[in-house]
């Protein structure tokens, strides 16, 4: 077994104090390692870190820009939707007004047609009344002449005389009718 006395006897010094050459080699190796890490490895890590930070920040900026664009499109969509609703309401009101105008025009045309038909019917009735009166004048005149001839006992074939008798008879009838209507 190796004891502390064997180590001291072998010419070594204090085991707690390292050898100067070992310190020097370790220091140089550490300096070389530190140089390699600071010159090559640390910048690579720093570049990766910077790239990652920029990518994350760029992604956040892109996400914010996309969000802003989406909000702008949403507002534009809402404005278009409101405009379309307003336009639809205007069209609906216009259609209602146009329908009311068409209905009023149709009512007016129907009233005019009704008035025209009524006037035509009155005209036809009046012409038929005049024709009936003329027909009655002729028949009444003939009947009155025949009746007067039977009453008088002689034939009243003189046209002028029979016309005067018929005219007087009809005038008396009209006077009696007018007097009866005014009472």
Quick take:
With 183 residues, the protein is an all-alpha fold. It has helices spanning 4-9, 20-152, 159-182.
Descriptive tags:
183 residues, mainly alpha, 0% strand, ATP synthesis
Number of domains: 1
Gross morphology: rod-shaped
Mean pLDDT: 84
Please describe the biggest sheet, giving its number of strands, its sense, and whether it closes into a barrel: none
The total strand number stands at 0
How much helical structure, as a percent, in the residues? Answer: over 70%
Number of helix segments?
3
What percentage of the residues does DSSP assign to strands (E)? under 5%
Instruction: Please identify the structural class as seen in this structure.
Output: mainly alpha
N to C succession of SSEs: HHH
Spans where pLDDT lies below 50 across 5 or more residues = none
Report, as a whole number of angstroms, the end-to-end distance.
170 Å
Based on CA atoms alone, the radius of gyration comes out at: 66 Å
Describe the structure.
There is one protein chain. The model has no long low-confidence stretch (mean pLDDT 84). The protein is rod-shaped and about 195 Å long. 89% of the residues lie in helices and 0% in strands. It has 183 residues and is an all-alpha fold. The protein contains three helices and no strands. It has one domain (18-46, 55-176). Helix 2 (20-152) crosses helix 3 (159-182). Component of the F(0) channel, it forms part of the peripheral stalk, linking F(1) to F(0).
Please outline the helices and strands.
Blueprint: H1 4-9, H2 20-152, H3 159-182
Helix pairs in contact: 2-3
Protein name: ATP synthase subunit b
Membrane topology: Single-pass membrane protein
Subcellular location: Cell membrane
